[in-house]
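ok so for the tutorial part 2 we go from a plain amino acid sequence to predicted structure tokens. step 1 is just haveing the sequence, like this:
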Amino acid sequence: MAQAAFEDVVEDFEFLEDWEDRYRMVIEMGKDMEPMPEALKVPATKVEGCASQVWLHMTPEDEVFRFQGDSDALIVKGLIALLHRLYDGLPLSEVPGVDARAELGRLGLHEHLSAQRSNGLRAMIERIRQEAAA
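step 2 — the prediction. this is what the tokens look like for a chain of 134 residues:
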């Protein structure tokens, strides 16, 4: 079961029948995210395998997983916002058990993302899992 913030997105998506509206919602979620400080946009936080520039900065706080992210592409920033709702605030021990592909599949994203964006999303998820395991 996903976190409440992600479940809210799933419910909102159920009311939006048009994929243009869903894309707009994802983009707006990205715009509404807390900005990632420029000082954190360094090679160590850059995610390789993404067509656009993506940075993820993860920090455990008292065994709770926290992360910030940013991208130079609006839709990708929205995808980061989705991942934030899925992972941020989970106990570190639960992060590896999240089936992000299945959870995001509930939104129907896989059928509507380009191959490059799908690859980038997989790279972001893998980076999150690796960082949480470390």
